[in-house]
Amino acid sequence: MTVNPFLISADQLAREIGHPGLSIVDASWYLPAQKRFAHPEYLAGHIPGAVFFDQDTVVDPASDLPHTLPSADAFAEAAGALGIRETDTIVVYDGLGLFSAPRVWWMFRTFGAKDVRILDGGYPAWIAESRPVETGEPEIEPATFKASFDPSAVASLGEMRTIVDGGSRQIADARPAARFTAEAPEPRAGVRGGHMPGARSLPASDLSADGRLKSPEELARLFAEAGVDIDAPIVTSCGSGVTAATINFALASLHKSDVKLYDGSWTEWGSRPDTPVEGGPASPRT
Prior knowledge:
Elements: E1 7-8, H1 10-16, E2 22-26, H2 38-44, E3 51-52, H3 72-81, E4 89-93, H4 101-110, E5 115-119, H5 122-128, E6 154-155, H6 157-166, E7 170-173, H7 177-180, E8 200-201, E9 208-209, E10 212-213, H8 216-226, E11 234-237, H9 244-253, E12 259-262, H10 265-269
Parallel strand pairs: 1-5, 2-3, 2-4, 4-5, 6-12, 7-8, 7-11, 11-12
Antiparallel strand pairs: 9-10
Protein backbone atom coordinates (compact mmCIF):
# COMPACT_ATOMS: atom_id res chain seq x y z
CA MET A 1 0.00 0.00 0.00
CA THR A 2 1.32 3.45 -0.91
CA VAL A 3 2.02 5.61 2.13
CA ASN A 4 0.62 9.13 2.02
CA PRO A 5 3.53 11.43 3.02
CA PHE A 6 1.08 14.11 4.11
CA LEU A 7 -0.71 11.94 6.69
CA ILE A 8 0.46 10.61 10.04
CA SER A 9 -1.36 8.03 12.15
CA ALA A 10 -2.19 8.52 15.82
CA ASP A 11 0.07 5.58 16.64
CA GLN A 12 3.05 7.09 14.82
CA LEU A 13 2.47 10.52 16.34
CA ALA A 14 2.25 9.04 19.83
CA ARG A 15 5.68 7.46 19.33
CA GLU A 16 7.20 10.76 18.16
CA ILE A 17 5.83 13.12 20.82
CA GLY A 18 8.70 14.71 22.70
CA HIS A 19 11.21 14.26 19.89
CA PRO A 20 13.19 17.36 18.88
CA GLY A 21 11.93 19.06 15.74
CA LEU A 22 8.29 18.00 16.10
CA SER A 23 5.58 20.65 16.30
CA ILE A 24 1.95 19.70 16.86
CA VAL A 25 -0.71 22.22 15.88
CA ASP A 26 -4.38 22.27 16.84
CA ALA A 27 -5.95 23.98 13.82
CA SER A 28 -9.57 23.59 14.88
CA TRP A 29 -11.98 26.16 13.47
CA TYR A 30 -15.74 26.02 13.16
CA LEU A 31 -18.53 27.68 11.24
CA PRO A 32 -21.01 29.64 13.37
CA ALA A 33 -23.73 27.11 12.54
CA GLN A 34 -21.65 24.34 14.09
CA LYS A 35 -21.92 26.08 17.49
CA ARG A 36 -18.52 24.90 18.63
CA PHE A 37 -15.70 27.08 19.89
CA ALA A 38 -12.19 26.06 18.99
CA HIS A 39 -10.03 27.72 21.64
CA PRO A 40 -12.17 26.74 24.65
CA GLU A 41 -12.19 23.17 23.33
CA TYR A 42 -8.40 23.31 23.00
CA LEU A 43 -8.07 24.46 26.62
CA ALA A 44 -10.36 21.65 27.74
CA GLY A 45 -8.22 19.02 26.03
CA HIS A 46 -5.57 18.70 23.32
CA ILE A 47 -2.80 16.40 22.20
CA PRO A 48 0.21 16.73 24.53
CA GLY A 49 2.50 19.51 23.35
CA ALA A 50 0.06 20.89 20.80
CA VAL A 51 -0.21 24.64 20.29
CA PHE A 52 -3.35 26.42 19.14
CA PHE A 53 -3.32 28.10 15.72
CA ASP A 54 -6.07 30.72 15.46
CA GLN A 55 -7.21 30.91 11.85
CA ASP A 56 -9.24 34.02 12.58
CA THR A 57 -6.24 36.05 13.76
CA VAL A 58 -3.35 34.81 11.58
CA VAL A 59 -4.70 36.83 8.67
CA ASP A 60 -4.08 40.04 6.74
CA PRO A 61 -5.43 42.78 9.06
CA ALA A 62 -5.79 45.16 6.12
CA SER A 63 -8.27 42.88 4.33
CA ASP A 64 -12.01 42.97 4.91
CA LEU A 65 -12.19 39.29 3.93
CA PRO A 66 -12.24 36.70 6.73
CA HIS A 67 -9.20 34.49 6.05
CA THR A 68 -6.83 36.34 3.73
CA LEU A 69 -3.22 35.20 4.03
CA PRO A 70 -1.00 37.48 6.12
CA SER A 71 2.36 38.70 4.88
CA ALA A 72 5.32 36.34 5.11
CA ASP A 73 6.75 38.40 7.97
CA ALA A 74 3.48 38.32 9.89
CA PHE A 75 3.12 34.57 9.39
CA ALA A 76 6.71 34.04 10.50
CA GLU A 77 6.05 36.05 13.65
CA ALA A 78 2.88 34.09 14.44
CA ALA A 79 4.49 30.70 13.80
CA GLY A 80 7.61 31.62 15.75
CA ALA A 81 5.51 32.75 18.71
CA LEU A 82 4.03 29.25 18.73
CA GLY A 83 7.52 27.75 18.88
CA ILE A 84 7.45 26.45 15.31
CA ARG A 85 10.38 26.43 12.87
CA GLU A 86 10.08 25.94 9.14
CA THR A 87 12.46 22.98 9.44
CA ASP A 88 10.21 21.15 11.92
CA THR A 89 7.99 18.21 11.18
CA ILE A 90 4.66 19.97 11.64
CA VAL A 91 1.62 17.83 12.45
CA VAL A 92 -1.74 19.57 12.13
CA TYR A 93 -5.10 18.32 13.38
CA ASP A 94 -8.61 19.58 14.03
CA GLY A 95 -11.63 18.72 16.14
CA LEU A 96 -13.72 17.25 13.31
CA GLY A 97 -11.12 14.99 11.71
CA LEU A 98 -10.55 16.66 8.35
CA PHE A 99 -12.23 20.05 8.21
CA SER A 100 -10.02 23.02 9.05
CA ALA A 101 -6.62 21.32 9.39
CA PRO A 102 -5.97 21.31 5.61
CA ARG A 103 -6.08 25.13 5.53
CA VAL A 104 -3.29 25.39 8.11
CA TRP A 105 -1.40 22.55 6.38
CA TRP A 106 -1.62 24.62 3.18
CA MET A 107 -0.60 27.85 4.93
CA PHE A 108 2.56 26.35 6.41
CA ARG A 109 3.53 24.88 3.04
CA THR A 110 2.76 28.16 1.26
CA PHE A 111 5.14 29.91 3.64
CA GLY A 112 8.00 27.48 3.16
CA ALA A 113 7.65 24.58 5.60
CA LYS A 114 8.62 21.34 3.87
CA ASP A 115 7.39 18.56 6.16
CA VAL A 116 3.77 19.27 7.07
CA ARG A 117 1.36 16.45 7.81
CA ILE A 118 -2.23 16.03 8.94
CA LEU A 119 -3.18 13.64 11.72
CA ASP A 120 -5.27 10.91 10.13
CA GLY A 121 -8.70 11.12 11.74
CA GLY A 122 -7.78 14.23 13.70
CA TYR A 123 -8.51 14.73 17.37
CA PRO A 124 -11.55 12.40 17.29
CA ALA A 125 -9.29 9.51 16.26
CA TRP A 126 -6.82 10.39 19.01
CA ILE A 127 -9.58 10.36 21.63
CA ALA A 128 -11.18 7.20 20.23
CA GLU A 129 -7.90 5.40 20.85
CA SER A 130 -7.86 6.60 24.49
CA ARG A 131 -4.61 8.46 24.04
CA PRO A 132 -3.37 11.04 26.58
CA VAL A 133 -4.44 14.67 26.50
CA GLU A 134 -3.34 17.89 28.14
CA THR A 135 -5.45 20.83 29.28
CA GLY A 136 -4.85 24.55 29.56
CA GLU A 137 -2.26 26.72 27.86
CA PRO A 138 1.17 25.17 27.32
CA GLU A 139 4.48 26.83 28.08
CA ILE A 140 5.87 27.83 24.69
CA GLU A 141 9.50 28.55 23.90
CA PRO A 142 9.48 31.01 20.99
CA ALA A 143 11.38 30.01 17.86
CA THR A 144 12.42 31.53 14.57
CA PHE A 145 10.32 30.60 11.55
CA LYS A 146 12.02 31.67 8.31
CA ALA A 147 9.13 32.20 5.93
CA SER A 148 9.43 32.10 2.15
CA PHE A 149 6.18 32.81 0.35
CA ASP A 150 5.22 30.65 -2.65
CA PRO A 151 3.09 32.86 -4.92
CA SER A 152 2.29 29.91 -7.20
CA ALA A 153 0.09 28.46 -4.44
CA VAL A 154 -2.36 31.36 -4.39
CA ALA A 155 -4.80 32.86 -6.91
CA SER A 156 -5.92 36.48 -6.67
CA LEU A 157 -9.20 38.04 -7.75
CA GLY A 158 -7.55 39.33 -10.91
CA GLU A 159 -6.24 35.89 -11.78
CA MET A 160 -9.66 34.38 -11.14
CA ARG A 161 -11.22 36.82 -13.58
CA THR A 162 -8.73 35.66 -16.20
CA ILE A 163 -9.41 32.00 -15.40
CA VAL A 164 -13.18 32.47 -15.65
CA ASP A 165 -12.82 34.35 -18.94
CA GLY A 166 -10.30 32.01 -20.56
CA GLY A 167 -10.55 28.65 -18.82
CA SER A 168 -6.81 28.33 -18.18
CA ARG A 169 -7.55 26.41 -14.99
CA GLN A 170 -10.40 24.25 -13.79
CA ILE A 171 -12.23 25.66 -10.78
CA ALA A 172 -13.09 23.15 -8.04
CA ASP A 173 -15.60 24.55 -5.54
CA ALA A 174 -15.55 22.95 -2.08
CA ARG A 175 -18.79 24.46 -0.74
CA PRO A 176 -21.85 22.28 -0.12
CA ALA A 177 -23.67 21.51 -3.36
CA ALA A 178 -26.78 23.49 -2.39
CA ARG A 179 -24.73 26.66 -2.00
CA PHE A 180 -23.02 26.00 -5.34
CA THR A 181 -26.39 25.77 -7.08
CA ALA A 182 -27.84 28.70 -5.07
CA GLU A 183 -30.57 26.47 -3.67
CA ALA A 184 -29.26 27.31 -0.19
CA PRO A 185 -28.32 30.84 0.88
CA GLU A 186 -24.79 31.90 1.69
CA PRO A 187 -24.13 32.20 5.43
CA ARG A 188 -22.55 35.64 5.07
CA ALA A 189 -24.70 38.73 4.56
CA GLY A 190 -24.41 40.44 1.20
CA VAL A 191 -22.95 37.43 -0.60
CA ARG A 192 -24.85 36.10 -3.61
CA GLY A 193 -25.61 32.43 -4.08
CA GLY A 194 -24.33 30.39 -7.01
CA HIS A 195 -20.91 29.78 -8.49
CA MET A 196 -18.30 31.07 -10.90
CA PRO A 197 -18.97 30.27 -14.56
CA GLY A 198 -17.22 27.03 -15.46
CA ALA A 199 -16.72 25.91 -11.86
CA ARG A 200 -17.25 22.29 -10.82
CA SER A 201 -18.85 21.28 -7.53
CA LEU A 202 -16.72 19.06 -5.29
CA PRO A 203 -17.85 19.47 -1.66
CA ALA A 204 -14.96 19.10 0.76
CA SER A 205 -17.08 16.83 2.94
CA ASP A 206 -17.23 14.26 0.13
CA LEU A 207 -13.46 13.74 0.29
CA SER A 208 -13.41 12.18 3.73
CA ALA A 209 -15.25 9.54 5.73
CA ASP A 210 -15.27 9.49 9.53
CA GLY A 211 -12.78 12.34 9.51
CA ARG A 212 -10.25 10.47 7.36
CA LEU A 213 -9.21 11.21 3.79
CA LYS A 214 -10.66 8.69 1.38
CA SER A 215 -8.48 6.27 -0.56
CA PRO A 216 -6.63 7.42 -3.70
CA GLU A 217 -9.00 5.32 -5.80
CA GLU A 218 -12.07 6.91 -4.23
CA LEU A 219 -10.60 10.39 -4.56
CA ALA A 220 -9.79 9.88 -8.24
CA ARG A 221 -13.36 8.70 -8.82
CA LEU A 222 -14.83 11.73 -7.04
CA PHE A 223 -12.76 14.14 -9.10
CA ALA A 224 -13.76 12.38 -12.31
CA GLU A 225 -17.45 12.39 -11.36
CA ALA A 226 -17.23 16.11 -10.64
CA GLY A 227 -15.76 16.71 -14.09
CA VAL A 228 -12.32 17.70 -12.79
CA ASP A 229 -9.29 16.41 -14.71
CA ILE A 230 -6.63 15.94 -12.03
CA ASP A 231 -3.88 15.99 -14.66
CA ALA A 232 -4.74 19.54 -15.75
CA PRO A 233 -4.24 22.82 -13.82
CA ILE A 234 -6.74 23.43 -11.02
CA VAL A 235 -7.69 26.26 -8.69
CA THR A 236 -9.80 25.61 -5.61
CA SER A 237 -12.36 27.82 -3.91
CA CYS A 238 -14.89 27.64 -1.07
CA GLY A 239 -16.60 30.15 1.22
CA SER A 240 -13.60 31.87 2.78
CA GLY A 241 -10.56 29.81 1.82
CA VAL A 242 -10.68 27.20 4.59
CA THR A 243 -12.33 24.06 3.18
CA ALA A 244 -10.95 24.67 -0.33
CA ALA A 245 -7.66 23.49 1.12
CA THR A 246 -9.18 20.03 1.62
CA ILE A 247 -9.24 19.72 -2.17
CA ASN A 248 -5.62 20.91 -2.32
CA PHE A 249 -4.72 18.31 0.29
CA ALA A 250 -6.50 15.55 -1.62
CA LEU A 251 -4.74 16.53 -4.85
CA ALA A 252 -1.34 16.61 -3.14
CA SER A 253 -2.11 13.13 -1.84
CA LEU A 254 -2.67 12.12 -5.47
CA HIS A 255 0.76 13.61 -6.34
CA LYS A 256 -0.72 16.59 -8.18
CA SER A 257 1.12 19.88 -7.77
CA ASP A 258 -0.28 22.35 -10.33
CA VAL A 259 -2.95 23.53 -7.92
CA LYS A 260 -3.74 26.99 -6.58
CA LEU A 261 -6.16 28.16 -3.90
CA TYR A 262 -8.32 31.24 -4.45
CA ASP A 263 -7.76 32.93 -1.12
CA GLY A 264 -10.67 35.37 -1.35
CA SER A 265 -12.95 32.53 -2.40
CA TRP A 266 -16.71 32.98 -2.64
CA THR A 267 -16.87 35.66 0.05
CA GLU A 268 -14.90 37.91 -2.28
CA TRP A 269 -16.34 36.79 -5.62
CA GLY A 270 -19.96 36.57 -4.51
CA SER A 271 -19.99 39.92 -2.73
CA ARG A 272 -18.89 41.98 -5.71
CA PRO A 273 -21.35 43.51 -8.20
CA ASP A 274 -18.91 43.15 -11.12
CA THR A 275 -18.23 39.39 -11.04
CA PRO A 276 -20.30 36.91 -13.08
CA VAL A 277 -22.32 34.36 -11.14
CA GLU A 278 -24.30 31.33 -12.28
CA GLY A 279 -26.93 29.29 -10.44
CA GLY A 280 -27.98 25.70 -10.89
CA PRO A 281 -25.68 22.74 -11.49
CA ALA A 282 -22.31 22.98 -13.19
CA SER A 283 -22.49 23.63 -16.91
CA PRO A 284 -21.71 20.67 -19.19
CA ARG A 285 -18.17 20.46 -20.51
CA THR A 286 -17.79 21.79 -24.05
